[in-house]
Design brief:
mainly alpha, single chain, 407 residues, Growth Hormone, Chain: A
Length: 407
């Protein structure tokens, strides 16, 4: 068998990981649809609901390294099944919410814990272990692309249920979709049968792997730029539907925009997975952050229309989850596979701290100023800075010239 060929036994693992990733990401990305209707019915502030989403992102980030470490100790299947159960319970709790506390418990704590065990870090580590190194970047792009389809299903379904039946019925629909994560996680858990390559430097213990990562300049820059990535994306998924509604556009446009992001995510993930096997992954990452910030500045500068909103969503979709295969590939190249999920979890913790600020900070700014102007301007400035620093850090250096031999 060719070294670069994907084993047939890996196909069910990759399909299960893609379904798990798609549903876990798609459902939580669509919770922004319920910010205004839930806040009005429950008599809570927009910032109260967005605080729950911010806490969700924070818990997801804090528990991601723990989930990665437990996957080494207990196996991926046990971790993913436990996370799937918590995720479904979170959606069920949110559908029965009576105030800010139950919104926090359901959308915040339970969904956040479930995401740590079913979403990006765990799904990408599962796919990485299932395929040869020569095909890894392209396969990670494929899994990320398939996972992008979750928002394409969840956002329109949520809006179609919410308009005639209310937001609670829509969240119950999300609960039923979340139950599908359980069998997907079971199938993806077959990866536990695949032996690891020989251990490499820093992989003998979780502590050694952590110290190695936290002293690596390339990893630290990547994690810092990842903070800004989380801030921008979660600001959009949380506040874009509200912004569209406030501008007097059809509320269904918010769901359509999230769905378009999910659809174009497929092309973006496939492209950057392919590109990451051919060009420096860090340079591609920096390019994503820089271009994404320019697109944000354009959309929020001009008066929004249905046409400009959908074009904006398409462009953002191309640059959305393309970071996933690049970050996962960089971590695997720098530190190997054994502790990949844990080390990637530390980078993701930085991402989620940014997500917390994007979700909650956007709500606080809106409540204080009555608009999102300051929020998007800060996001653009930070994104441009992160993109430039990431590119400069990752740009290939020319090889040092050999010194002339002494006469």
């Amino acid at each position: 068998m060719s070294e670069a060929r994907i084993p047939r036994s890996a196909i069910p693992i990759l399909v299960g990981a893609a379904i798990m990733l798609g549903l876990s990401m798609g459902l939580r990305q669509s919770l922004g649809l319920f910010v205004l209707p839930a806040s009005r019915e429950l008599a809570i502030g927009v910032s109260d609901f967005t605080l729950a989403i911010a806490i969700q992102n924070l818990i997801w980030g804090l528990l991601q390294p723990v989930a990665g470490m437990l996957a080494v100790r207990l196996g991926f299947r046990a971790v993913m099944l436990g996370g799937a159960a918590l995720y479904a319970l979170g959606m069920l709790t949110l559908s029965q919410a009576g105030g800010a506390a139950t919104v926090m418990l359901g959308a915040g704590i339970l969904v956040g814990a479930g995401m740590a065990c079913t979403a990006g870090g765990i799904a990408m580590a599962t796919a990485s272990r299932a395929v040869p190194a020569a095909r890894r970047s392209a396969v990670l792009g494929m899994v990320s692309a398939a996972g992008s389809l979750g928002a394409l299903v969840a956002a329109p379904l949520g809006q179609m249920l919410a308009e005639p039946f209310g937001w609670r019925v829509a969240v119950l629909g999300f609960f039923l979709l979340a139950l599908v994560i359980l069998p997907a996680a079971w199938v993806a858990g077959r990866v536990d049968r695949i032996p690891l390559p020989a251990a490499t430097l820093g992989e003998n213990s979780a502590g050694a792997a952590t110290r190695l990562a936290l002293r690596h300049p390339g990893f630290l820059v990547m994690a810092g730029a990842y903070f800004v990535c989380g801030l921008q994306l979660v600001f959009l998924t949380t506040h874009l539907p509200s912004y569209i509604n406030l501008c007097g556009l059809d509320p269904m446009l918010g769901a359509q925009a999230l769905a378009v992001i999910g659809a174009f995510n497929v092309a973006g993930s496939l492209f950057f997975g392919w590109a990451g096997g051919r060009w420096p992954k860090g340079v591609l990452l920096g390019g994503i952050y820089f271009c994404r910030s320019l697109i944000l500045a354009w959309y929020f500068t001009v008066p929004p229309t249905p046409e400009s909103t959908l074009v904006f969503a398409a462009l953002m979709g191309l640059l959305w989850l393309g970071v996933g295969p690049l970050v996962a590939g960089m971590v695997a190249e720098m530190f190997g596979l054994r502790w990949q999920a844990m080390i990637q979890g530390f980078a993701f913790l930085s991402h989620q701290l940014g997500s917390f600020l994007g979700a909650y900070g956007g709500g606080v700014i809106f409540d204080a100023m009555g608009s999102y102007d300051l929020a998007w301007k800060l996001g653009v400035a930070m994104g441009l800075t992160a993109g430039v620093v990431q590119i400069l850090m990752a740009w290939p250096r020319p090889p040092a010239r050999p010194r002339a031999a002494p006469a």
